[in-house]
Design goal:
Strand content: 15-25%
Distance between the termini: 152 Å
Number of domains: 3
Radius of gyration: 37 Å
Number of helices: 12
Structural class: alpha+beta
CATH architecture of the largest domain: 2-Layer Sandwich
Shape: elongated
Order of helices and strands: HHEEHEEEHHEHHEEHEEHHHEEH
Mean pLDDT: 77
Number of strands: 12
Low-confidence stretches: 326-332, 377-386, 393-406
Largest sheet: 7 strands, mixed
Length: about 400
Amino acid sequence: MTLPQLALSSLAIGLVIGIGLSLLVVWAYRARARAEEETSLEIPAGITDVLGSMDDAACVVDSSGLVLAVSHAATRFGIEVGSTLDNPELRQLVRAAKTTGGSTTESFRITRGGLSLDPRLVSARASVIGTRLVLLIIRDVTEQERLDQMRRDFVANTSHELKTPVGAVSLLAEAIESAADDPAQVRIFAARISAEAGRLGQLTGRIMSLSRLQAEGGLTEVASVSIDEVIASSIEAHVVQADSAGVELARGGDRGIWVRGDAQILVEAVGNLIANAIVYSPRGSRVGVGVKADAEIVEIAVSDQGIGIAEADRERIFERFYRADEARSRRTGGTGLGLSIVKHATQRHGGEVRLWSRPGRGSTFTIRLPRIDTPGHIDSDKKSKKKRARKAAKAASARVRNGERA
């Protein structure tokens, strides 16, 4: 072999050895990186910032279920950094995501903060973000489920409530036709038809009121409203009912208070509270309507000395068609919509309704509304009326001084 050939052969062998060593080094680096990745618990860049900006409960866990990072809302479910996932459904969801290597979503009920009496319906999603890391997002859909159930109940209850008076009117009409030769029976059936028609009218009217309050732009007549006039109108509208029930109506508290809103809706809301208080009060008791105000808030409280509301019913008392005492409500012709109207009317005015009650001692419903300053202007019509009244008074005084007859 000549010298040039030997040189070329040596060069080729060196090149092969160099390439082999390079490949071996690259493989070694990759193997090391892969091993570090498999054993590393370092959270990928940006995940912590994303968790910090999330409203839903979320966390990053390793293959053993150890929590490495959390969002602020995760603490509501007792999930904290350094702890392990206690819920078996969540652990199973994490394992399923690691098995598939992708994302897995399930819905189930879990408890918040270890409180077994507070089960929440959640939609949980687990996504693999590393060899050993899984991102778990928990969305609480309990309120959405409750609203969906309320919609279904509203449709079912409305159909049922409307069916009852409509069916009664139909049967009574047939009874009148059968008793056409008996004037006394006809009068009895006609009176019952009138009562059922009134109940049907009340029910449809309240459904329409509630629908308007829940619709966008529910307040159309917004102006400065005198609470004194609201209270006076509400009490006046229920004086006959109170007299029939033997219940005294009493008004007290601050006066000269104003709010911003729709006077008619507020009168209806306060009137519903007064009507309920009268219905659930014993004969000879008192229903009080009081007003208390500070610089920002005005409170309208309606108190009774009635049967009170059981603790189990207080959470649902403002739901549509819910009746704490079904038998009494049926007997008195209640629709189950009055307190729901109160709640939505108050919310439309930027306020809230609070309830205090003790069984056997009575209940107090308090409407809290934002207060406004007393309007400093009087419209031109009122001004002109006052001017005319003053002129008439001066003229009458002049005639009296001159000995004329008024």
